[in-house]
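Risk register update: the risk of archive-format incompatibility is retired. Evidence:
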Amino acid sequence: MTKDQKVIRNKVGLLELAKQLGNVSQACKIMGYSRDSFYRFKELYDKGGELALQEIGRQKPILKNRVAPEIEQAVVELAIEQPAWGQVRVSNELRKKNVSISPFGVRCVWQRHDLQNMKKRLKALEAKVAQGGLILTEAQVVALEKAKTDKEAHGEFESECPGYCGAQDTFYVGTLKGVGRIYQQTFIDTYAKVAFAKLYDRKTPITAADLLNDRVLPFYDEHGIALCRVLTDRGTEYCGRPEHHEYELYLAVEDIDHTRTKAKSPQTTDVIDKSSFDEPAVFSFRAWVTAWRRAGREVGALPRSLYSRSSFAAPVRTFFGPRRFQPATKRV
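Archived output:
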């Protein structure tokens, strides 16, 4: 049953209930309608039955408030012709052609045609090119190429073959007594999902390049595959002056393109998080961190009048398991 049918059924039910009770006010109170609505429904029902109630139940657009069809068509065509333009510029350019429409009117037309942002306008442009063999203008080509570059900078691209692109990132593992901070350099092939990982006691360009030199490139050479490019974030271990940065120099020597993520977009290298943590033998630190956090929450739930969370609670819970041991220190 559709929404309109339910509304009509309620109106008919109101009329029948008022007839059964013999009291219009009580029926309106039960059904949630006003007396004015009741008499209006009754008059329409007596004249045309349920069909008359159906006609008033439909929400019709107020066409007199819309722009003329030719103006709307001009807005849609310009949106596809210049997908990078905003609503203010579209309104200004149309006024130069003696087509009067406000920026807000342009926005309303875009919403009716599902063109309210650049991504949707580019999608409509691609669909039109695929259907009609449209020859792209210079502005359209630039907009499509820019969108493709932005997608790649956000990690949204399709790998065509093994070695097409590898994602590399640095993860903080923890701290070991006598050693200090431990970092893990991680590399994953975005097509084959083959992953490599190595632990280091520092986070530097040398360690980032060492993973490629020691594990990644020998594996690719063994299978006769060329690594085309690497996708990384903008961390100091990956980015710097090419003439002085060890990682950049290594990529240049090996003829590997370097693609950096977009600024302030840490989700770019999520391909590593989503694709490679399924192997606990390689990425065991993920489970280690999870156990650490779980231990922290459970220890914090102990009665605070007797116990307090200890500094060694989480590490011990990590090695003994989340449910077999509950370390805590008793308050004196």
